[in-house]
Amino acid sequence: MSFTVNKTRVELVRGDITLQDTDAIVNAANSSLLGGGGVDGAIHRAGGPRILEECKEIRARQGGCPTGQAVITGGGNLTARYVIHTVGPVWHGGGHNEAALLRNAYLNSLRLAHEKGLTSIAFPSISTGAYRYPIEQAAAIAVSAVREHAENYDLPRLIRFVLFSDRDLIVYQAAWDAANPVK
Ligand code: AR6
Prior knowledge:
This is O-acetyl-ADP-ribose deacetylase (Regulator of RNase III). It holds the Pfam family Macro. InterPro entries: Macro_dom, Macro_dom-like. By secondary structure, this protein is α/β, with parallel strands linked by helices. The protein has one domain (2-179): Leucine Aminopeptidase, subunit E, domain 1. It is built from five helices and seven strands. The chain has a seven-stranded mixed β-sheet with strand order 1-2-7-6-3-5-4, with helices on both faces.
C-alpha cells in the first residue's frame, strides 16, 4: 500500500528493516544505546560493530538517549547509509505519558532525517515488541505522526513502515485507513 501526503510518499510493507534501501532505517533502541534484542539486535548484527562504536561515542558525549528522543549513526555494513536510533516508551498501561513519548519518537526521528537532508526513511513498529505497547494504539500514533510531518515538511520524500508480520501490516493498514477516510 502506498499513499501520497503533500510531497511525500508513505508506504506500508511487510519486511525486514535491515534489508531496506532507504537512506536511513530507524532502530527501536533503548536508552543505553548499547543494543538489545528484537529489531535492535537484528540491526547491530546486520550492520556490524561500527554502529555500536558510534553509539558508544554518543553515550560518552550525552549519556544515552532519553525516551522519545533520537540520535543518528552511520549504517555500517547496511545498505542504508544511516541508522536513526530512537527510544519508544515501555507500555505501563497508558497512564504514563506513553502516547506522547511514542509520538515524539517518530517526530524526532523524522526531524533528524529532515535536518540531514535525507530523502527516504524506513520505520519498524516502535515499542510494540519487548516494550508491549498495544499495536492498534501504537499504529494510530505512528501513522498520525508521519502524516503530520509530511504535511509540514518536504523531506524525507519517502517514509516506509516495515512491518515484521502480516498481522502487524494489517493493523497499520487499518490505522492508516481510519486516519484517512476516503472522501
Ligand atoms: N525488521 C522489522 N521489524 C522487526 C524486525 C526486523 N528485522 N525484528 C523485529 N521486528 P522490538 P520495542 C519487529 O522488541 O518494542 C530491544 O531489546 C517486532 O516484531 O524490537 O521498541 C531494544 O534494545 C516488533 O513488531 O522493539 C529495547 O530494549 C517491532 O519490531 C527494546 O527491545 C518492535 O519490537 C525495544 O522494544
